[in-house]
Amino acid sequence: MLAFIISRILQALPVMAVVALISFAMFAYVGDPVAIMLGQDFTEQQRQALVASLGLDQPFFVQFGKFIWNALHGEFGLSYRLSRPVAELIEERAPATLELAFCAALVSLCIGVPMGVYTGLYRNSWLSRFFLTFSLIGVSLPTFLIGILLILVFSVWLGWLPSFGRGDTVQLGWWSTGLLTVSGLKALVLPSVTLGMFQLTLIMRLVRAEMLEVLRTDYIKFARARGLANRAINFGHALKNTLVPVITVAGLQLGGIIAFAIVTETVFQWPGMGLLFIQSVNSADIPVMAAYLMLIALVFVTINLVVDLLYYAVDPRLRVGGAKRGH
Amino acid sequence: MAPLLEVRDLRVEFPTRRGILTALDGVSFSIAPGEVLGVVGESGAGKSMTGAAIIGLLEPPGRIAGGQILLNGKRIDNLRYDQMRRIRGREIGAIFQDPLTTLNPLYTVGEQLVETIRTHLGLDGAEARKRAIGWLEMVGIPAAAQRVDSYPHEFSGGMRQRVVIALALCAEPKLIVADEPTTALDVSIQAQVIALLKGLARDKGTSMMLVTHDMGVIAETADRVAVMYAGRIAEIGPVREVVKHPKHPYSAGLMASIPPLDRKVEHLAQIDGAMPRLSAIPRGCAFNPRCPEVFARCLVERPALLATGATEAACWLYDAASEKHAPEAMRHG
After folding, report:
1. Is B104 an interface residue toward A (CB < 8 Å)?
2. CB within 8 A of B49, min separation 6: which ones?
């Protein structure tokens, strides 16, 4: 088990190294930081001094090594746009995005899985047909449109929920949370639903397809022949066997939710990392972009590791080494 | 003795886009307590279908369209799903063909046994686990107390089929429907599994319906045998009689096609032609296009099972009213 985790972490290292190289390369090839920082009016001496202080006169590998070293310490330099440390900016913004992503994932799993099980079990009922049609809408409508429609209905017409922002937040150490106040929770609803909609329909359709597949297997037939209760068969035997593909997709989707919350955050003016990123792209704020890139890579690598560990927990056939074959 | 299971004039249909297919037509037989009934026939003859109808698990859209199935004198073919669920496992156990796919890969064999035992016998967890280990011992799993916590993939095919047998028997049903229980196993393992099944059924006084296309297994295990053809029973009777003196031309062909062990033969006997598709069963006797002894009546009227000494055969040769007589003279033996 421990050996498995270590081997997966070792496999993740080259991935992170390549992403770091790409992030680093942005400094060298996307714009000239010295020109950006100096502005219009400067002497050759000032330029030389800045180049030396940024370490840009040193060889490539020394610079790259320094970049990695700083990154490991959470230092990505100053934002060109806001002239504040990047780490600080991300620290401020990350809780908003992570809470939003977490709620969206929760919404998509808690609604998508039961809907998938239902449509798999009763595939000819009118409710299943309704769910399937509804899921087609969820898959095909673009996120920004869903967001705007939800704002129109629930904020403008009904006035139930706020149309933008995070509401009141409470500071827990460096983490600012909106989960502890009523206005914070209310503000979470529309963005979570918007962000989770696509995942919800995807998970529903995946669970449905897997259920249909599993319900045809011999071990489900045998479970019926043993006279087990329907609930035990449908949830204990059938649903559990659909989990491996569902975990894979849900895991990758969670990474996607965090990384690409950009559209939803823009629609709802959600003060998260996505909004920060889009603003940084607009003003070529390379340190922020580089840090964001590396952070997202780290998120994906971590989620993949967790997904692998969950496989391990769900499917005993993958637990190599511990198994001894009998004859 | 009153029969444990009685099947009367069973008819199973599959509605399809091109009309209704009749998979079983007028199937009647009974199984006495403690008796082993073998069911043989070619693929598609309706052997497994009969078993599935008895345990109430016909694949939709298949449905029982006529006839009755009685267990201990009570009809079970018209029960609601939940009532039938209490009978499955508890009164009628089932064993399927492929032990590699019949066990849920995500649960240990102990968990699957305990779940079945608790569902039907209402025991607490510890007692059910004790029984589970007892059953694994009974089906010949070595070191059962340790192996109870193993997953199905940690067992070989033969061992898995033993686990399946334990699962089918663990709620102590009175009847076992075994659908080709040895077909997927190595030949060397087949005999062991059959001996185990036979021994357990005898010890517990369990009746068995043994579906197979292996005449050797039937001859060794069954008390009586039913020969099926195109969804109908062609002949039914004591195993010795049917094997040694088959009355129906189809059974005779089937027995003749078993390779003899005591002498060398150039060519195995075979029955020309193939079994008709369900959509194209001929009028009269379903076997008439392939029958070497066919005569006019066979092409028009469908024969019912007729008593012919020790066995019953669905063949006009044995009806005194048939134009063509003297069946004894026509037989070779």
Report:
1. yes
2. B12, B23, B24, B58, B62, B231
What CATH number does the domain containing A162 carry? 1.10.3720.10
- Tell me the per-residue pLDDT of A23-46, one tens digit each, with 9 for 90 and over: 888 776 776 767 777 777 778 888
Residue span of the structural domain in which A92 resides: 86-316
Interface test with B, best of A221, A226, A230, A237 (most B CBs within 10 A): A226
Show me where the domains of chain B are located. 5-222, 228-330
Total count of domains within chain A: 1
- Examine residue A302 and state whether it is found in any structural domain, yes or no: yes
Helices (H), chain B: 47-54, 81-87, 99-102, 109-121, 125-138, 144-147, 157-169, 187-204, 215-221, 239-244, 249-256, 296-300, 327-330
Topology (CATH level 3) of domain B5-222: Rossmann fold (3.40.50)
A128: which 2 tokens? 């299943």
Query: With an 8 Å Cβ cutoff, are A226 and B147 in contact?
Result: no
Task: Strands of chain A (E only): list them.
Answer: 170-172, 175-177
pTM: 0.80
ipTM: 0.87
Please report the residues numbered 233 through 262 in chain A whose beta carbons come closer than 8 angstroms to any beta carbon of chain B.
Answer: 236-237, 240-241
Q: Average pLDDT in the B92-107 region? A: 91
* A-interface mutation test, from B104, B149, B154, B175, most A Cβ less than 10 A away: B104
Q: Judge: B103–A315 Cβ closer than 8 Å, yes or no.
A: no
